[in-house]
Design goal:
This protein is an alpha/beta fold. 64% of the residues lie in helices and 9% in strands. β4 and β5 form a beta hairpin.
Length: 887
Amino acid sequence: MAEGPLMAGGVATSEVPALRLRGARARRLAPGLMLMSGFAALGYQIVWTQQCALWLGHESAAVLAVVAAFFGGLAAGAWAVGARIERSSRPARWYAMCEIGIAVWAMLLALSLAPISDGLVELIGARPSPLRHWMVAFCGTFVLLLPATAAMGATLPAMARMLAAAQERRSPIAMLYACNTAGAVLGVLATAFWFVPAFGLTLTAAVCATLNLMCAGIALTVFPSVVSDSEARRGDGDRGLSVLAVTGLLGIGYEVLVVRALSQVAENTVYTFANLLAVYLVGSALGAAAYSRWLPRLPSDARIARQVRDRLLQLLAFACVLGVVALAGAQSAKPWLLVRLGGGMTGALAAEVLLAASAFLVPTIAMGALFSHLSTTARAAGVGFGRALGANTAGAALAPVLFGVVLVPWVGLKFSLMVVIGGYLMMVSVLAWRRPLQWLAVGAVAVVSVSVSSLTAVDLPQGGRLVRLIEGVMASVSIVEDAAGVTSLHINNRQQEGSSATVFADARQGLLPILFNPQASHVLFLGLGTGVTASVAAEDARREVVAVELLPEVISASAQFRQATGTAVAGARVHMLAADARRFVRATDTRYDVIISDNFHPARSGSGALYTVEHFAAVKSRLASGGLFCQWLPLHQLDLDTLRSIVRSFLQVYPRGAAMLATNSLETPVIGLIARGDDQRIDVEGVRAHLASASQPDPLQYGIADDLALFGSLVGGPDALRRFAGDAPLNTDDRPVVIYQAPRMTYEPDSLPRDRLAAFLDEMDIEAGEVLDVAASEWTARLAAYWRARKNFIEVGRAVRPSPDVGRMLAQVKAPLLEVLRLSPDFRPAYDPLLKMGYALSNVDAAAAAELFDELNRVQPARLEAAQARSRVTAAHRASLPVSERP
């Protein structure tokens, strides 16, 4: 029997030339595969983070659990599967199976996440303990993503094994890591700036899955199906794994802390976080590429390898010190950058990138080189790359909890960063402590610790002061007082809606929706802010009021505003819950008569999920019989195109929805979308009875003198809203257009709030019968006149130039406001300012003031204030004359 071909290392000698040819092609294609694989991996991370937030919420436990679960899955795959791959003679098959597994599981998740998330929301519950929330969030996410994340963790070790034979002494790890990370950069930017805004989350996941399948096909076609057993490494050593784990912990810890610090300076949009992540990854890729280029053939001498490690650790410590200095100056550097970069959205995004680069770029370059060095030296010592990568990502999985949950609230941002830098310096060898460079690094840390006062940014107005600062897990919350004694609430250095000076507007946002529902005994507020809105609603002790607020620190800060605004007693009756509003609505079983959603800034990360069709539908399912929902919208922070999408999404769930104005403010106009859950019209007679019996709080105190003032706040009916929305894209969970569209107004405002309000009102009209359950009558005619008067009133206001001189003000507004009153004598917002200006005018020109009061009395004789003012002014003028001159 003839013998077969001789075998060399398990491979037929006749096949060696073919394998070498395929190996050369493989070396050329491997970087491209790693690029595609990295692109898909970070695309998935962005998609899964947004999808998981829909059921987990945006509480600290949820956000950090997703990050930890993602890294935990990578660690599990690299450690368990990667080690097995490194002992296999068929790594290409393993690699292809991993890529196929990622694609299949990603598409299964995309198609089944909705029903799965319903079960997980129910498991978490509406009011879970912190431990229960964390456990379900982490374990649920970990298990849900594990098949894909574990496969991701194994792809890099598989590729390293596939290329090991062709690299001789040159380690492929650094090159593969650099290419994989470069692909991740492209994946982050393409996903955030193009794929998700244009195609939505599911189609983006499909694009990533397609890339995975392409990688699998190329690997099976191009790479040798079998590699020599002599190239297989047992990889069961553990030398250097502890250092890899700690560097993973510190590296992601540094990322968590820098992102937190920059969130007080950057705009915190979806683009902000994409840019921050991209800069972090760019630095890592550059570091790995530099290591692959300049340190490809390390001597086997362990002493030299240790010296290189020490130098990289010291370089990384110095780089992080420079990063802290950059963060300390970021607040003052941003305005300078915006001026130099020319403003606009492009300039604003470029400024954020440069701020991120100042804190991230040099440290992450050192991190990329350090990981490549540690992995290469570990592999030379018999430690498989899978175990090395697993140890590194396992450390990374712990970082969000250790630094975000424990250290920042405990010691603050600055000292948490000092812990990171100190951690790098403590990992050098004993010999390094005998050299001046190590002590120079220690000295630099000491100098920065003393010289940098704080990394918590708080902008103070001239003459103002910081009243209180609360450093929380997810944000810094501060209370700032200006020179006039007005206090305002700031989250991550950004002023929120409401202050001690805006009680009138804040109260109306709570009172108007409640007055529209005569059975408003159970009220839910989504968002707390200063707490004034919910506290005013709770002034009626018979009413049960629940307020859900994402940040516990805001709940704590609200006590100060309730005290300052005189709503402390009522505020004590509000049941305040620290929870994600969206998740709470899905999880609770309680039905509410009125649900009022705060005017969340649509551009801020996470807020757009509160304006989706799915969330509006969830709210509808939590309304009691005859219940009413009101969604407030900050037009001063919204462009009209984004508003159209939100309006269309609202009408998709509430087809008989209407629009109203919280106040007549031109600088901070707030629109309310309002509708009943049963799609019925508002019961006018019931509302009138409810308004007549309302005493706590007194509606008149907040400008609601009668039913005309209440119903007069409406500005648009369902037909007008439908025309306004047109064919604007729906804001859905799968295609969250708001969070990608709204930032344009934040970065590059193209109009003034008053102009957007006027443009909106120009497209609005309303008939009483559309929204109100009332027949045509003399009252509906008066209401229609009131609506026309209000529109004219706002147009008058747009043309006014404020002046402290009452004469100049009257010259601008007297005639047009009197004309508004002739159109609708019931329109008090035009009557009251003229009355006040008449009193002010009486101090300098009593005759002119008396004439103004007479005109007011002729236009609206039913109101007695003008006639009474006329009498008082006349009496005062008579008393000021000499006795001989008195009539």
